[in-house]
Structures are given as structure tokens and as C-alpha cells.
Description:
The structure holds 2 protein chains of 2 kinds.
Chain A: H1 10-20, H2 31-36, H3 41-64, H4 74-96, H5 98-104, H6 106-109, H7 115-125, H8 130-160, E1 162-163, E2 166-167, H9 177-180, H10 182-207
Antiparallel strand pairs in A: 1-2
Helix pairs in contact in A: 1-8, 3-4, 3-7, 3-8, 4-5, 4-7, 7-8, 8-10
Chain B: H1 10-20, H2 31-36, H3 41-71, H4 78-100, H5 102-108, H6 119-131, H7 135-163, H8 175-190
Helix pairs in contact in B: 1-7, 3-4, 3-6, 3-7, 4-5, 6-7, 7-8
Amino acid sequence: MHTTDAAASEPGVFANGIWKQNPVLVQVLGMCPVLAVSNTTINALAMGLATASVLILSSATVSLLRHWIPPQARIVTFIMVIATFVTCVDYLVQSISIELHRALGAFLSLIVVNCLVLGRAEAFASQQSVRRSLADAAGMGCGFLFALLCLGTVRELVGSGQVFGYPLLGDRYQGWAIMLLPPGGFFSLAGWLMFFRWWTLRRHSASGSTFQLSGPTDG
Amino acid sequence: MVEATNPESLWSIFIRASLVNNFVLAYFLGICPFLGVSGKLQTAGRMGLAVAFVMLIATVCGFAIERVLDWIDAPFLNLISLIAVIATTVQLIEMFVKKVSPTLFRALGIYLPLMTTNCAILGVALFQSNHGYGFLQAVVFGLGAGVGFWLALVLIAGLREKLDLVDPPDLVKGTALTLVLAGILSLCFMGFSGIGGGS
């Protein structure tokens, strides 16, 4: 499903996750938190950082344990590893800022079922060395954070004229309340997907190669 | 001790879980199967039923697990035990479906085992404890959420079947178009807000 070039070096693996194989905008993975907590930039940033840290920690652990995990029980083992780190991150966020914890709500716990985290453990970390897994997890985490910020900035800017709580569009701007509500999440994500598709198609038609955009693959 | 502190009526819980706070269209839970298996009406309906069933079981399990962990004073194990129970239930359902209807098993494909990582299922188990529901309330909540998920899946599948007949521009084909549809559907569901009392 994901083409992981075996010859790519660590920086290549890292860059791949941010742009070419961006988990949200290209692979369409882990959509639920992306849509749910991207109504303000600060929520998007916190959620992106939390997911990225869980991803990095669990990828490293899975990669370390890859020779000892029996193949029949691997999914269960991965989920348990992820659930442990999510519990840690959940308590960590709670200790840093209780308001943030309340704003993110159940979505912090729901990182467990983010298919991006499990997908990387299964597709990459369980087969590759620790260093490469770390590079991949960091790249995917940054890509996820980048996509969340894309969405969060647009939704907060259009919805209330602010970014990170600073009014950018002046006092007279009338926010589109719809962008902060659930439908706005669907519409802005659709907009970003179209933009990325247009961007990729244009680049590929310039270089003359045929290109197939991957659809939603799983979970 | 965890106690039922929510005085909400059962009918109101059901309406709010299924329509007003629809899991897919208002809480964005379970988006992946929503985008993935909503191509055909029949498959979507059956997938919706399977997910709704697991959601009901997950709610009951979530309720029980919370009590047990509270009793042994280990609330930090909540998430881990929940996901283990859900994974087991999904595995059982997978075996059941494979035995009873191999056709359905093939139609659901990868999305059946992926139900383990369906956020709607874990979400319903987590939310019921946040709301502080009693046992009967939790069951109705799980049922309502499941019905809401099934409804959203069937609605979007019906819309997408109609879309097969039109010819959209190349740029919006695929996921983007489905997302726009989901946005419009979500707008419609916002019209339900206020029904069932409360916020």
C-alpha cells in the first residue's frame, strides 16, 4: 500500500513522510482527529504534537521489539504498545494544561485508534531498523502536524479572523461561524485535498510522467 | 466511586446520540469506514449494522471495565483494557461473519478487521463514562450512537450511488467530492439541534 523505498536514506525517509507521502493530504489516513480538533490553530498544534510523539515512541518500541513479537499476535501487541504511550501522553497533557486537555477531550485518548500510528507500526517499524523507523515516524508525525496546521489555520482565520488567538483580519471582520462548526471541517479538508491534487497533477504533467493518486486506503 | 449522575431521560439520550450529536457528522468519529465502504448501499448498510452492534457491546464493556478498574483502583488501565476487549469482540464478529456469510465477508474486506481501530467504537465507550450515565442510559446511548452511525453511512452511500451517474471535473473526483457531500449532510444534521432537549 505504501511504497517505502528500501534504498532511501534516513533524511529521504523523513522528507517522504512530510511531503510526498503526507499521511493526511496524500494517503488520507487518520482523518477523525484532523477534522475534529482543527477548529483552532492551538488545538491543531497540540493534537499534532501529541500524535507525533506517540508515533515516534511507539515506532521506536515496535522496531526494537520486532524480532520478539510473534507474527500472529503482532496487531494486538502494537495496539498495546500504542495504548501505553497514549495513556502517558494523556496524563502529560493533563499536567501541562488542564484547559487544553478539556478542549481536546476524548480525542487525546482516541490517538490509540488513529490508523496512522498503527499503520506505520505495521508497514514500516515492524520491518526496519530503529534509526530508519525513527526517521519515518518523525517524518510522518511532522507531515501530520503540517496537515493539521494547514486545516487549523484556515478554519480559525476564516471562522473567527484569528490565528493562534491573534486577530489578523481586524475587528470589523465577520467570522463565518460555519467554518468552526463540523461542516466547515469537511469543506476545508475537501479544499486542501483538491489543492494538493491540483499541485501534484500540475507537477506531474510538467514532467510528463503518468501519475495515479492513491485513494483512501484504510482505517 | 463512579456514580450515575446524569438525570437525562432515555428518549432524549437516544435522539441526541443518533441525530443531534451524530457520531460521524458532528463528532467526526469513524470517518475512515465512512469514506471507505460507502460506495455501495447494500455493503454500507451491513457494515453500519456490524459497527452498531460492536458499539453496543463496547458501551456495555466500557461501563463494566470502568467499574472494575475503579474497584481495584487502577483507572490508568482504562484505555488499554477497553482496546483489548474491542479487539477481541471484533475478532469474534469477523469469525462469525466469515462463517455465516462469506459474500459479506469479502465485500467488507479490510474494513472488518479495521473495526478495531474504528474511533467511533472506542469513542462511544469513552464518551459514556464522560457523560456519567447509569447502566440503562449507557445502553441506550450506545444503541443511539450505533443507529446514528448506520444512518449516516446509509445516507452517504445513497448519495454516492447517485453520483456515479454524473461526471464531475477531474480535480474533485474521489475523496474530495465525498467530503463535500459529507459536509452538506453535516449541515443538514445541524438542523436537528435542539431536538430532545438540552444543548
